[in-house]
Each structure stands twice: as C-alpha cells, then as structure tokens.
Write a structure and sequence with these properties.
Elements (H helix, E strand, L loop, with lengths): L15 H11 L2 E7 H7 L13 H10 L4 E4 L10 E3 L4 H10 L5 E5 L1 H9 L5 E6 L20 E8 L5 E7 L7
Parallel strand pairs: 1-2, 1-4, 2-3
Antiparallel strand pairs: 5-7, 6-7
Helix pairs in contact: 1-3
C-alpha cells in the first residue's frame, strides 16, 4: 500500500507557484491548530533555517512558520517544541477560547482527523482546499463521513500551471430576518 493510501501526504509537495500561494495564505494565520501527525511532519520547519540547501522561498516559509503560534491536539504526546503548546481542552473549547482572545489573523486547522472533527462540530467558517491531480485510492477523509449537510458559497478559485486547483468556500449561514 502506498503512503498516500495509508494517510501519508508526501505526494502534495508544491511547485514554486503553489508554494508562493501557500506562503501568502500562511501570512493571514494568527494561530494554527494541528493534529499530531501533521505537527510531527511540520517539525522539520523548526530548524529548517539551518539547512544550507534551502532556497529563498523555503527560508521565507520557515521564517513565517517558526514563530507562528501552534496548538497541537494529541493523546500520545506529552510535550511539543517550538512556538507550540499541547491543547488543554477539546477542539470546540480551544476554538471558542481563541475566538474570544484579542488578536489578528485566522485560526487555521490542519490534519485530516482534526479537520473532520471541526467540520462535524460545525466549527469551520471557511474551507480552503487544494485539489491535486492525483487519485490516491485511500487515506484519511477530510470531511466527516456521517455529518450533516453544509451549504457552501464559493469565494475564490485558482488553477495553477501544475493543474492543482485552489478552492475557497465560505460556510453559508442561515440568515433570519424579522
């Protein structure tokens, strides 16, 4: 079984155009919530600025990622490194607390399991997805399997030269008028 079919996402390495786009997106983030597996994958960036083989774009990403506040959700980790902390409560409680704090930037959620939990609980205001021209035949679902219907409003699309497609949707909230 390939790493993609078992939940790995090493096949998503972006080309320069997509990577520049991702750098621009991360600038809008004030705090990033991560599941354990994504956190462990992203640990590389905590020391990447010491890698002499990195190009300017990768160094720019590292300079933005390293100081970015991160909250890690894990039942197996006892400690985290860098500008990260282990979540002290459940996902809904953490998001409620973060939304109540003053601060700038979006709350980003990364990791399929964590994102699915947030989606199932109705905690997501906006979905930003990149669709790669790859069929992996498995993996961890990004969306809940037995959730409620969620209507979305298209906000933005972009197709890159590599045929990767960026989709940005806002959750359509019911509007009540009296």
């Amino acid at each position: 079984m390939s790493s993609a079919a078992s939940g790995g996402f090493d096949w998503t390495a972006p080309d320069e155009e997509v990577f520049r786009f991702v750098i621009d997106e991360i600038r809008e983030v004030g705090v990033h919530l991560l599941g354990r597996r994504l956190y462990e994958t992203m640990l590389y960036w905590e020391t990447a600025d010491q890698d002499p083989s990195l190009d300017d774009s990768m160094l720019e990403w590292a300079a933005i990622w390293k100081p970015l506040p991160k909250v890690v959700f894990s039942t197996t980790l006892s400690a985290v490194r860098g500008n990260a902390r282990l979540a002290s409560g459940g996902l809904a409680e953490e998001i409620e607390r973060l939304r109540a704090e003053p601060g700038e930037g979006d709350i980003a959620i990364g990791g399929a399991t964590l994102a699915a939990e947030a989606a199932a609980s109705g905690l997501i205001d906006e979905y930003r997805a990149r669709v790669y021209p790859v069929l992996v035949g498995g993996g961890i679902p990004f969306f809940p399997q037995h959730g409620r219907r969620v209507d979305l409003e298209l906000v933005e699309t972009r197709t890159f030269r590599s045929r990767v497609v960026h989709l940005r949707y806002r959750v359509a909230r019911q509007r009540w008028f009296c």
